[in-house]
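Could you help me review a protein record that somebody else here produced? This is what I was given.
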Amino acid sequence: MSAEIGLDLLLAIVGGAVRVGTPFLFVSLGECLTEKSGRINLGLEGVLVFSAMAGFGGAYLSGSPWVGVLLAGLSGAALALLHGLLCSLKRVSDIATGIALMLLGAGLAFYLGKPLIQPQAPQIPSLALGAWSASPGVQSALAINALFPVGVALAGLLSWGLANTRWGLVVRMAGDSSDAARALGYSVNGVRIAATTAGGFIAGLGGASLSLYYPGSWNEGLSSGQGLIAVALVIFARWSPWRCLGAALLFGGAGAIGPALQSVGIGGGYYLFNAVPYALTLAILVATCSPQRAVKGAPLELGVST
């Protein structure tokens, strides 16, 4: 492999890491906030698919991608609110409710989204950060999804807010000790419902990125399990918003290897390389199966600590 091909491959992976990693970033940040409050939402796959459909439909009908982004966030928040309300009932399992939510979101998206499979909707614009270079490879790699800087800023805001603000303290208290939160007069269910709903809104932005930027269309196989992968990604990131950013780019880079190789004319094993994110997920789950590793940084109310 020549140096020029190697550079093109590297640029393609870097650009692909941002494109593929943006939905991972938003979904993982949403789940991070939810789990910080002591609740697990395994229904993020359904949230992601439903919000992708809603965002695409909103952009198609309104002619504005930003209307679609807003609608995607609100759709994700609505499904997550349903999850939060159901889980606040006695003897209701977060896990079982999350699975039901995943099926509900996917089913509604497939049913309501059938008329949207063929049309084209206006897309989220790119930020041409590579305009300074005369190289088409650099320009392509640095054509950034306009939502990605929003995700980076959101990661910083969540990290700062959870550590330095009153609402962050309340969310962490609900996640670490519900008894302590109640003793201080806070409604644990109210805090968790609010955090779950906000997390759903953030995850919904990831759905908008899927249908309105990359791959930029609506179809029933759009998500490919990214919502479920994001749950493992949060564990890998040790419930840290900043680490969610790094983990999302890592997973995005893994998912971009196949297309990057194809872009430089290497087509062998394309579908095998497309399986890298799923293999990486399994490797992470195996690596974190030790109780001593798994509990580090975990909110105590999740029940994963000993």
Observations:
- The beta strands are 126-128, 143-145.
- The mean pLDDT is 87.
- Residues 110 and 181 are 40 Å apart (CA to CA).
